[in-house]
Specification:
The protein is an all-alpha fold. It has eleven helices and two strands, in the order ααααααβαβαααα. A two-stranded antiparallel ribbon has the order 1-2.
Length: 290
């Protein structure tokens, strides 16, 4: 107890010997010194960069949500009586998504894209998936990365296009041209996710008695799978991870084509979906065991 009191007393006496005002006297930081001014500029630059990153994350989230809604709309194509109406509505939704991408392009104007890539990559992948899905429905082919990037070149006429009238904020912005390029990784990951949507489209088509679409999807997925297999482990890690899921989608579609080819004539159209779903569950169980 005496030792504690002694040590405490010593600390107290030491503080008494150096009063607060005297200890701080002569040691105040000069806020106008070159070092402090440099660090203040660093702070402002980092704060601006963090704020920009958060704005890009929010825009990417909006792009992801709107792209998913476009994909859900396009899945109605298998049962809709008028396919052109669905495609027209999907184009309106994609224009709305591109308005969000325009805001991303404006945020990244003069910036290094790779420094902010993680903030926007999820949204760009979902956009690639939606655009490629729509393009496949129209042409039964795969849209190229160059075609996607051509749609992401914006001028001042595109500002406020969604609302049909230029906004006050758009008028205040500097006149010019903005562009955003989808990276090869974003493109590959978006196409890999597209295969899952095509597999669902195949299931819906079988359920509606469509015999031609499963064979078209099967041939297309085989070509995509061959392309990804050619990349193999030399590509980005995220791409190689999706190869297994792509293989599962291809197996399910090929199984549907097999059932249609071998037993299609003897199975009523309203029972094709049930037979296909049973076969799909058997494939999943076998892959789980292996």
């Amino acid at each position: 107890m005496s030792n504690k009191e002694g040590s405490g007393g010593f600390r107290k006496r030491k503080q008494d010997n150096f009063p607060h005002n005297q200890r701080r006297e002569g040691k105040d930081v000069n806020s106008s010194s070159p070092v402090m001014l440099a660090f203040k500029s660093f702070q402002q630059e980092l704060d601006a960069r963090h704020d920009k990153y958060e704005r890009l994350v929010k825009l990417s989230r909006d792009i992801t949500v709107e792209s998913k809604r476009t994909i859900f709309l396009l899945h109605r194509i298998t049962s809709a009586p008028d396919t052109e109406e669905v495609l027209s509505e999907s184009e309106i939704k994609l224009d709305s998504v591109r308005q969000k991408i325009l805001q991303v392009a404006q945020e990244l104007s003069g910036e290094d894209m790779h420094q902010f890539h993680r903030a926007v990559t999820i949204g760009l992948q979902e956009y690639v998936e939606a655009v490629s899905f729509q393009h496949f429905i129209k042409t039964r082919s795969l849209i190229s990365m160059d075609e996607i990037n051509k749609q992401l070149i914006f001028t001042t006429e595109d500002i406020g296009k969604e609302n049909k009238t230029p906004s006050s904020e758009a008028q205040e912005k500097q006149l010019g041209t903005w562009s955003l390029k989808v990276t090869p990784v974003d493109y590959l990951l978006g196409v890999a996710d597209l295969t899952g949507e095509l597999m669902r489209m195949c299931i819906n088509s079988v359920g509606n008695g469509d015999i031609d679409t499963p064979f078209e999807v099967s041939q297309f997925l085989r070509q995509v799978y061959d392309g990804f297999s050619f990349i193999g482990n030399t590509g980005p890690y995220e791409v190689s991870k999706k190869l297994y899921t792509l293989k599962q989608s291809l197996a399910k579609v090929e199984n549907a084509c097999y059932a249609l080819k071998v037993r299609g004539s003897e199975i009523p159209k309203h029972m094709l979906a049930d037979v296909f779903s049973v076969k799909t569950e058997m494939i999943d169980q076998e892959e789980g065991i292996s």
